[in-house]
Amino acid sequence: MVDGDAFRDDGDTPPDEPFARTESGVILLVDDDTWARTAIRRILTRVGFTVVEAVDGQDALDHYGRMIEPPRGVILDLAMPVMGGLACLEALRARGSVVPVLMISGDDAEHEASGFARRGDARLLQKPFSAHELLGALRETLTPT
User: Fold this and answer.
1) What domains are defined for the chain?
2) Which of 26, 46, 36, 19 is nearest to 104 (CA)?
């Protein structure tokens, strides 16, 4: 188990086994939990993504505003201080951003996020999740439908 709150071991991949580098592009990773952010960043960089990290929704908006090109996707924790994930997602959409968003949460956030998911504004991945579940959900999020 990488982090008791965010990850669970799916038994398929030993911790040191490298992932295939099949991805590219920038992912904006937003989570106030340093351990979760570090673990997710390591997984994403192993498959080829470049990761920009933010500690809360406001920090994410600041990073997003400084980017020359929008990121390929955003991974956004729902429960954070300063500005939570739903408020950040609303602010991104109010700015006209259509960047794909994968919301993650350890809380029972399905109800909160279900409106966004139904409208297609974001996907939701419930913590704990394995590295393979994270990558699968992110790939689905990034794939146009």
Assistant:
1) 26-127+137-142 (3.40.50.2300)
2) 36
Distance between CA atoms of residues 120 and 118, nearest Å: 5
Q: How far apart are the first and last CA of the chain?
A: 33
- Residue 130 DSSP label: -
Q: At residue 100, does pLDDT exceed 60?
A: yes
* Contact in structure between 85 and 105 (CB atoms under 8 Å): yes
The residue among 63, 114, 117, 113 whose CA lies nearest residue 85 is 113
Please choose, from the candidates 23, 71, 63, the residue with its C-alpha nearest in 3D space to the C-alpha of residue 47. Answer: 23
Q: How far apart are CA 139 and CA 128, in angstroms?
A: 18
pTM of the predicted model as reported, rounded to 2 decimal places: 0.83
Show the tokens assigned to 9: 């071991």
Q: Which residues contact 56 (CB under 8 A, 6 or more apart)?
A: 30, 32, 80, 81, 82, 83, 84, 88
**Residue 109: its pLDDT value, please?**
56
Structure tokens at 109: 């956030």
Q: Taking Cα atoms as reference points, which of 112, 67, 115, 62 lies closest to residue 85?
A: 112
The type of residue at 37 is: R
